[in-house]
Amino acid sequence: MEHVQTVIAKDLLKIKAVFFRPWEPFTWASGIKSPVYCDNRLTLTAPEVRNDVENALADVIREKYPDVQVLMGTSTAGIAHAAITAHILGLPMGYVRSGKKDHGRQNQIEGRLEPGQKVVVVEDLISTGGSCIEVVNILREAGAQVLGIVSIFTYGMQKGLDRLKEAQVENTSLTNFDHIAEVAAQEGYIQPADIEKLIKFRNNPSDESWIGGNQ
After folding, report:
1. Which of 98, 104, 109, 130 is least surrounded by CB atoms within 10 angstroms?
2. Which ranges carry the Phosphoribosyltransferase domain (predicted)?
3. For residues 113 and 136, is the Cβ–Cβ distance under 8 A?
4. What average pLDDT is seen over the chain?
């Protein structure tokens, strides 16, 4: 798995799907200052990287969840990854909307899902875990047996880890914040001294003392 983590980390850095800038932080919608910008949708427009990502997701699912019957993507970023991975595996797929449609059949789960079917959720990234756990709960309420979550990237934030544990669902990511930070330093995207700042942010996103070199 470490080899896969490194390959995916290099891929995401190369196309700036994960982009570190500890010297000039980004501002999230919540107002939190962040040294990292993540947009794994960019993998979809980079065919070589997309191939690495989807085949790695398929390999994880084959290994960990051989009994899976349906893949379900999170809306909207996980939909394409679920579709491509399902195609590789020869499996049905669907996705879960963020809310019910206000017309037609008013579906929240798109695609056929029978009660009792074994499902793996496909997500692009996990930070605090709220959105993917909401998807897990919706699928469970519909009678699905959720085997686990597979994702491209995870921050490893404690809030997310706690939520996953509380929901009794396992996530497996192709790479993670700590590993990609190490690769970024090795590849010259950031300085080795920046890693401590990045980890400090990861451990407590609301603490801005890492900005400007403050320790």
Report:
1. 104
2. 47-163
3. no
4. 92
